[in-house]
Amino acid sequence: WLSFTSWMVKTVFNLVTRFGHKLRDKFVKLSIPSS
């Protein structure tokens, strides 16, 4: 059960990291032209 929990944490963390990078890229692309 502990290994399954750690696997879930890693998977969720990876997904959040990817999603965060995508959001950051979009934000950067939107903010650069306006500056």
Explain this structure.
- With 35 residues, this protein is an all-alpha fold.
- The protein has one domain.
- It is 94% helix and 0% strand.
- The protein is built from 1 helix and no strands.
- The protein has one helix spanning 2-34.
- It is rod-shaped, with a radius of gyration of 15 Å.
- The model has no long low-confidence stretch (mean pLDDT 88).
Could you give a short description of this structure?
The chain has 35 residues and is mainly α. The protein contains 1 helix and no strands.
Q: Quickly give the structural class.
A: mainly alpha
What is the string of helix and strand elements?
Answer: H
Taking all Cα atoms into account, the compactness measure Rg is: 15 Å
Uncertain ranges: none
Helical element count?
1
Number of strands: 0
C-alpha geometry: rod-shaped
Q: What is the count of distinct domains?
A: 1
CA-to-CA gap between the ends?
50 Å
**What portion of residues is helical?**
over 70%
Strand fraction = under 5%
Biggest sheet descriptor = none
**Mean pLDDT figure:** 88
